[in-house]
Records
---
Amino acid sequence: MSILSRRIFIQDGFKVVSLGLALPHIFTRAVQAAAEEAGREPGVLGVQGEATGDPYAGRTLIVVQMAGGNDGLNTVVPYGESLYYQHRKNLRVAEEDVLRLDDHFGFHPAMGAMKALWDAGMLAVVHGVGYPNPSFSHFKSMDIWQTANPDGKADEGWLAKLVKGVVDKRGHPFAGFAAGGTLPPALMSPDYPVPAVDNANTFKLLPDPRYAVDAPARQNALVQLYNTYPGGAPFAQVLKSTQQGTLDSVDQLQRAHAAYTPAVEYPQNGFAAGLKLLAETIVGGLGVKVGYITIGGFDTHSGQQNQHARLLQTLSDGLKAFWDDLSAQGKADDVMIMTWSEFGRRVSENGSNGTDHGTAGPQFIIGNSIRGGHWGEPAGLANLDKGNLRFTTDFRSVYSTVMDGWLGAPAEKLLGARFPTLGFLGPGQAE
Amino acid sequence: MQTQPMRRASFLSLTMALQAAVAAAACSYDRAKPHPLTSRRTQIAHLLRRAGFGASKELLDEYEALGITRAVDRLLDYEQVPDDVEERVGKLGLNLRRLADLQRWWLWRMVYTKRPLQEKMVLFWHGLLVSASSTVGLPNPTPQNPNPPHYMLDQHNFFREHALADFETIVLGISRDPAMLIYLDSRTNNKGKPNENYARELFELFTLGIGNYTETDVREAARAFTGWGILNGKFAFRSNNHDSDSKTVLGKTGPLDGKDVVKLAVEHPAAARYLSRRLFEFFAYPGPSERDLEPLVRAYVASKGSVKVMLHALFTSPAFYSPKAYRALIKSPVELVVGGLRSLSIVTDGNSLPGVTTRMGQALFNPPNVAGWPGGSHWINSSTWLQRVNFCNALLTARNDSRTIVPAVDKMIERHGLKTMEATVEFFGDLVLDGQLSPAMRQALLDYMSDRQATTASPRGVPAAPRALPPPPSRTAFADRKVRGMVYLLMASPEYQLA
């Protein structure tokens, strides 16, 4: 039975049946299977806690998109290189201000919280990440990263492909989860709905307040309208699968939301609120395999100094709070974080106290069991390509390492090619 | 920046792939009947949804009497149509320096305008030539500066004034528009150390599209735009900061300035195709063929880029009324919200509307990034779907609310002499779905109204006898519960999500 048809009846099985509706027998069987599945497992229809002996079973990957093109050079600052100071006359992080990682690199001073994770050996920096023939368009470059495809063309995002059938063959509604009102293209698929939630409090189907008693009949009719909408009609896949996936997930999310109390105080901003929602789904055992969150504003063509510092502070403090919360709730061992941005910035600053679009940049990996430190070859400042860094690490190597090493997914099959694995999850020493 | 809606990729390729399925679309209307767009009533309803925001029964009647040709002319020659919406919106007493009031002011105009195409084109330009108040800012009066300029409103008014002008006028105007000069950093683009932000997006997103210019064109064009800035709230040329040396842009060499670059861009053959495609995909359907675009491209070339001539070509083209065009777009949040209010003739002060469209993913004056709203299937995810459906619920279940006067469904039943459930479904189905309801949809609505259990295996082609509405006085209670519920279902349906 396909994921979708199964999902429909996991979703509405109980409600529909309790209304005594006539269902074709094949569906009734699916409902029964869903009920058995539910009865066998603790809590919601989670994949966690199942005694399969699968070491990857309860793991979650959190992907953090730094949208707009993060200035990698001012994030992981090569303060030991004089060329850096030649290119950055105004937009420089002074040697005395960096948070030193070693005698060559240091974090931007706003990243104290992430520096603490580095010091604890839980943070890896992957250097010089990019891809051949870099695009300087935000949108083309995001397409490339989000489809893991060098021409940016694919009918679904790389994470949708990952969660759709490989990591979670059972079509669990929360295998993928996006915090925020927008579904990122990396989690888009024409026939696989991933919930995008900006606010758990409004994530409900509202009834006519005067006739609560009519609510089941209304909801049932609504489901009927979507079920009978012809599969070949315009936008049928996205409309039908979204309706199904949404009604499937509302109750579970509400239960997780009601049961969750954060163990730390999160900063007051949208990014931290999204991280808190991700923590809720993890603590609530909803079975999230891939959680996603975006922090925007990195397109710093002008007035970069303050804006970039503010963004890095938000990123760093938010991730630290998230990590502390998960640790206090006993979940941190099951979670790994990966950041990305569509490109870095031009090596030389422009005349607006900003930087234009560039190429390669660093990615961060955070986790209790990862091998912290530097990975990948830093992109040298001496050998530029028309003023831009030459990438040293293909982003698909990072994807491959994470898919294979953290989620136990067949990276080569998913990416359509083999990419060298990096060592941040494997044995051996950091570089 | 973290408080603004999350940025997202335009993800054009994925969108196109998702929408390719649409091209081979089957139908959600009754295929036994002739195609919906062969009836004049449906053509008019389709035209008013696309070139406007939908219409009440009365307005549909009025435009239907005109016929397509004169209806298109009336939409395009909107200066000829008297409209007092400007004065009426003034009576709401809004403070346009506040974002929510600014959004509400525009949404309210869309609901009550008599010139719907003008508002629709302002929305088109706002989504194509993007600036966002999150970067540009809103005016903040101080004792020293009690009347600071309102750049976002000025830009909006520029779009309204030139909604159907020629492309060069619009692109040159927006290149010198203070909100844009701020949003894409032209005002700090100086000789010697140029800032590429505007030059790149001008080519990539505003006029040509990827593949029609080089990185060198971007760097050279950035030099041409140096020195463009703002003085006293208006465009100013800062000659000291302008690089007057020779540059080569799109194959032309000389001491080019920004005006020259705009001209080179709009006269480039790719510009005719780019604008034609953007208009076609906004108004007709995704993924047009070169042949579909031909009438618009020809109009662009023949009229030196007149948007009015292009739209006339589009709204009178066979493609626009072809089966492929019917219900081929997802309604944007603004279209859903404004359209719902218009078709049900709801009187409202619009207080809740800004929050509603924002939660559905469309905060006016704040597009997510420089590519605007990606639209299509990007409008639909679990959060936005719930917001859309819950908005329809709010429309139909508002009662005794001084801000919103919902059509009294029981009065409509009396006024139009509706005696049976079937007739009631037909009446409201005509109003919000052009009467194009599939048999399965009719069945589900009737089952809901009569509290009959759904029978997926109900025999086809055996019409049940019409079921009478309960007699008065219990009819009022029935209408309040079941007719409102039924209209909610019509609007929450997959079909209604489509324009």
---
Amino acid sequence: MAQSRRKPPRVGDGPIIRRVLIGTTLFFGAILVLAPLIVIAVEAFSQGLKAYAATIAHPDTRHAILMTVATALIAVPVNTAFGLAAAWAITKFDFWGRRALLVVIEIPFSISPIVAGVAYLFVYGLQGLFGPMLEAADVKILFALPGIVLASMFVTAPFVARELIPLMQAQGRDLEEAATSLGASGWRTFFSVTLPNVKWALLYGIVLCNARVMGEFGAVSVVSGNIRGQTNTLPLHIELLYHDYQAAGAFASASILATLAVFTIIAKVALERRGAGRRPALAAAAKDQNAGTSP
Amino acid sequence: MKRNVLPGLPLSLGITLFYVGLIVVLPLAALVFKAASLGPSEYWAIVSSPRAVASYRVTVLSALVATAFNLVFGLALAWVLVRYRFPGRRIVDAIVDLPFALPTAVAGIALTTLFASNGWFGSLLAPLGIKVAYTPLGIMVAMCFTSLPFIVRTVQPVLEDLDPALEEAAQSLGGSDRTIFLRVILPLLMPALLAGLSLSFARSLGEFGAIIFIAGNQPMETEITALLAFIRLEEYDYQAAAAIASVLLITAFLMLAATNLLQARALRYTARS
């Protein structure tokens, strides 16, 4: 946080520039970010409370909610376990290829979800690597829950690891080394030394991972097959209703995800107060540079 | 070098490599393999077809405009959030993350409704002859929305940690606000700004969910590359889908490399100044 001491005016503290900047940014912020949130609420209830309740209670909507929750219940814990394992391996040990591994873990973050979906098709689809084999064994991965879960896992693979790695890197290995040298087992060290130190960052990663899994659209729409009442997650259900000219229904379903988004942000702010997030390596690096240039 | 006493390397590294291999590397390798199984001439014919090239043009141009807008707007927003105190500042600060938290499909239908010719903003712009929904402008609006937090969130922490002494020194030497901003503050923000810029641009290039609702999706005009790959898939033209997806993949890798390079260079630049 910037210090709020009253010192000689800093750059941009003039009343005119201050007002103009606050006014303009709030204006564009309201148009671009706040208005979509409001329009969702307005449109969702545009046909009245009854129609809203009817949409939510519709079997297809309920099934879509179930699919979304089921996907999150599998993908989020698995990605959490992966994030913890990756962070432990990368921050507590030095091994060849460590930096390369870091880069590979971050890859899903910079790849279009559509590319992820298409890529999965070429692994598990009929025209893919394992497709014919899976077909022969009568195992359905694509156009079913496993495919949706796998695609969601790809998209959110870095989420937990990304929060843990910089933090655990900064915390070093001393505490863990002390614990093991005093005779604690590896698991004991992990659960009573490492985990308490990273719990907020871990939770932060989980919250963001969950939001992305529940909201993922592109990757899932490729691998789900869009079968109404069967493989539709909530975002896909929204698309279906919207293109069916059932805008109110689409917005009613969207309001569920918008509520999730608002709760995600509240959780995010609460966790940031406890020190999670807000630690980009870049900021730290830039700070070092600044420190070097200041008198 | 100290001998490492901690246990768990085989287990944690084993899980990590297995998972990354299965979830990330295998699918991407399968995609590359599929695209490579096309002959060079066939591959080139697909990725250089007029419809594909038109999709690159609209995607890249829209992403450039959206990133340029977010550069100015994101920097201004970060500045306002860090430098000024006003009622509601913390709420604004929290809401900046909404584009990350709100599912893209939800953002897509919300923006389309707002900017359609009968929507809240669309109806205001229509008399001026500006159509946003179902035009390239709509694609830009969707990209602006989804990539807004990148620049704000990369610049904000650096701006917070900026040493006031630097500004004070420049002021005492008689620098005007403008000069100080351009010659002192901006160079210090440059690494973060460039990082945010490339993240924002990369995200815009790959965005799908928010765009397809508002774009109109007319081939040659408002069809983004990600959608073209998706359409080829729905037409069961798997080779074309693989080829076009591989273009997106290669672009993503180039962007990743450029990001790292820019950051390294920018950091060196700050160190020297």
